[in-house]
Specification:
globular; 14 strands; alpha/beta
Length: about 260
């Protein structure tokens, strides 16, 4: 049964979760990607393998981690390997099907900036950095990106090139010797986007319930293109929404107890 009362953030997380399958081996980013991956695990994809950058494999957290070093990840994992093994054997060895990333800045071709806003030497804002994201973007079979829409985040040109998407578009990724698919899906709080098969520029594929094209345009810094067959994203089901809200509630309670 479809739910009728949900927030844009909840729609974004659930729409992202639906993109994952039971057979995926997924490299999970902290934050929105982690929420989406765990909703998928707790609903339609119970056998998905979740991997975090700290080396935890087959993680099944009951609460959402604050960082890759959160003890919950290691405690619930099938096994934990060293970070060099994680990157060299699992990631660069081509054993991970999906990398799920967030972004501070994103351009129309799926290139990501998580390093700095403004000039690198004299930044307006210094961000957390790339961590393992550059390797994830290059070595996972494909990449899903999730982020809230805002003109300051979805820009024509990123201030710093942290993680490679489709470069300048077209065959730029393949021309540089990168054999994986790169970004194949962008999930925002307003819409689902997929790259044009030829140009690799993100286009709106589906619009979330109640969202207008004007709202999408007002929160995007590039000229938007729409697929000819744009659909409406199915609203969350009661199961999806309950699962998301319960894991968020458990997370808030766990963090409250730790801080008490």
């Amino acid at each position: 049964m479809a739910a009728t009362d949900f927030t844009p953030d909840e729609m974004m997380t659930i729409a992202a979760a639906r993109a994952l399958s039971n057979d995926d081996v997924c490299f999970v980013g902290i934050g929105a990607p982690s929420a989406a991956c765990n909703v998928a695990r707790l609903t339609h994809a119970p056998d998905i393998t979740l991997i975090y950058e700290s080396g935890t494999i087959g993680t099944a957290p009951s609460v959402l981690p604050l960082s890759i070093g959160d003890g919950e990840l290691c405690e619930t994992a099938l096994t934990t390997v060293s970070v060099p093994e994680m990157f060299r054997y699992w990631l660069q060895g081509g054993r991970i099907t999906v990398g799920f990333l967030g972004a501070a800045q994103l351009d129309p071709f799926g290139n990501i900036n998580t390093t700095v806003i403004g000039d690198y030497a004299h930044p307006k804002t210094r961000l957390p950095g790339g961590g393992g994201a550059p390797e994830i973007a290059s070595s996972c079979g494909e990449v899903f990106i999730t982020m809230k829409q805002a003109k300051r985040g979805m820009v024509k040109a990123i201030d710093f090139f942290t993680s490679f998407g489709h470069g300048k578009g077209g065959t730029d990724r393949q021309d540089r010797g990168i054999t994986t698919k790169g970004p194949t899906l962008l999930v925002t709080d307003l819409a689902l986007w997929r790259p044009n098969p030829e140009t690799k520029e993100f286009e709106v594929n589906a619009i979330h319930p109640g969202v207008t094209r004007d709202e999408i345009a007002d929160s995007c810094g590039w000229d938007i293109r729409y697929r000819d067959d744009v659909e409406e994203t199915p609203p969350p089901t009661e199961e999806e929404l309950t699962t998301l809200r319960e894991i968020k509630a458990r997370t808030a309670e766990a963090h409250r107890r730790k801080g008490a």
